[in-house]
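USER: If only I could read backbone structure tokens as easily as an amino acid sequence. It would mean a lot if you studied the pair and described how this chain folds. Here is the record:
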Amino acid sequence: MAVSGLFPVLVLLGGFAIAADPSRRTVVLWALVCVVVAGVDALLALSPKRLVIEREPVAQLRLGEPGRTSLLVTNPTRRTLHGQLRDAWQPSAGARGERHPVRLKGGERRRYATSLRPTRRGDRRADRVTVRSFGPLRLAARQRSFDVGGAVRALPPFESRKHLPSRLASLRQLDGRSAVRIRGQGTEFDSLRDYVEGDDVRSIDWRATARRRNVVVRTWQPERDRRVILVLDTSRTSAARIGDQPRLDAAMDAALLLAALASRAGDRVDFLAGDRWVRTRVSAAANRTTLLGELVQAMAPLEPALLEASWPTLASAIADTSRRRALVVLLTPLEPAAIHESLLPTIATLTHHHRVVLASVADPALAAMATTRHTTAEVYAAAAAERTLALHERTASVLRKLGVHVIDAPPEELPPKLADHYLWLKAEGLL
């Protein structure tokens, strides 16, 4: 049972009786009257158990975008319900206006909507729906909570998509130059043409030559159907917050931009995410128009695990994904201890079979800390920051000697830098 704001008013009214007869008997008697009146009022209220509550499906949202969820409440009785309804959600779902006054006549059905604006990526779940049904005097109410399932999926926001049009324009220019500059090279058949002095005799198409009665050679173009494998590290190092977002979310943004660009370039994109185990994977889609949708769905529920990354396990998953040479992008923090313990013993195998790029989300606060030296405390903090940056650079240098290209940039700079490196590889014919 719950009481309304009118119940304290009823209790205060007893002050007149107590003032007339200030005795213990009067106080006890008035308290008993208040309890009995409230109890009777609650008993006369419509039982919330009689209601039928359903939740309409909740549409998916990008992180930070507004949405709403609706409850359908049906009163199958002949009595009118006067009360309140609360549609409770996880705090990170960003629910607003979840409390609703309810006046539901017998046999009536109404919809009650709650606004949602998730503040964290992933599946944000609904808690219980609580209904208070007040009696005729509105002094007390019956209260009951219902488990009405519901969830809203907050997808990665893909903020770096603003860089996609300019990179696609660069890709189109690159394709046009490639058709002129390296026509006749590559492994993918392009066309037939007459033989000219200096052509490789191994390119002669003898059947076409016999048909035309003139020597004809095959021309080739660079292969477009290349493999790009994105590997997202979800271990403990990805849980660190850079600014107002986890490092994992910034790495996802870079992966989405590269995936969108590579799929438009005609390459096959695979995605792996894991730490000690492979958490999720997206294989190269036959229909590339669905790739981004599959990726954001796979990324949405991922959360950092308080585990060390097992790079031998992830390297085995990469080998299972493709036996052909591919561009492997490791989206993992440039943390010296984690890299030296697990990644370095594995990296030689990866670089032997694939072209490897390591993309790390850098913390701009380190650079700012290293340059601020006004007080004694700031000098010590700057020394610690300088040491950390030096360790990062030393680790990056070791990786470069092993054939890994390292990109270490702040969250807003990493996606375009990774995309530009991919375009450079295309322009140099290294993919």
User: Anything to note?
Assistant: The two ends are 70 Å apart (CA to CA).
